[in-house]
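Obj.: predict assembly geometry.
Materials: sequence records (below).
Method: joint structure prediction, all chains together.
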Amino acid sequence: MHVKVLFFGATADETGTTESTIELPEGTRADAALTEILDRYPKLTASRDRSSLLFAVNQEYARADEAVNEGDELAVFTAVSGG
Amino acid sequence: MRLMFFELTTEPLDVGAIARRVVPEECGATVTLDGYVRRFTKGRETEHLVYEAYEPMALKEMDRLAAAAKEKFEISNVSIVHRLGKLEIGETSVVISVAAPHRRAAFEACEWLIKELKRTVPIWKKEVYADGEVWVEGE
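Observations (raw structure tokens):
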């Protein structure tokens, strides 16, 4: 299945893109999807821990065991700094 | 008129107008936070800031926070507006306005809302210095 992956701010700079499409095996959970994304873009964890990245599925913070489905919108970003 | 509003804009924010957009008749006080760009952060001088957002998710999170604040505090209305793009020193980056029958709940809700916004709403700031720039990562 194919999903869209969005990056913002620091993660967009580090991946060199704001949006990409990746292929994942059917039945992939959120945690495994993030692993796949981090394998593809190693710069994201070059200078920070995986645990400091935030991960959203369909515009909501994702639980690790949440199902990911064809056409979903994923997003990987750093701890937020608005205000 | 909508009683609660959540917006992202690249236009300058008019704090007074945002605070006065909703003045419910059952309320007696609106507490408004005017957050603006500071020149010095940890001793380093900022030239300007750039804000970016995951816009649809940020709006959903603002809506969720406002609903949670209404559950938690005796308040009537919440408005949150965040500016995006390039901001100069002293320009308003965020306005949170809380209307309540009585002021105490409005003060408490406003403080809670900005703390939560800084923790959960997907907006990022880039600090641009004379000699470099950095995307700020939250706590």
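Conclusions so far: Chain B has a mean pLDDT of 95.
To do: check interface contacts against the pulldown list.
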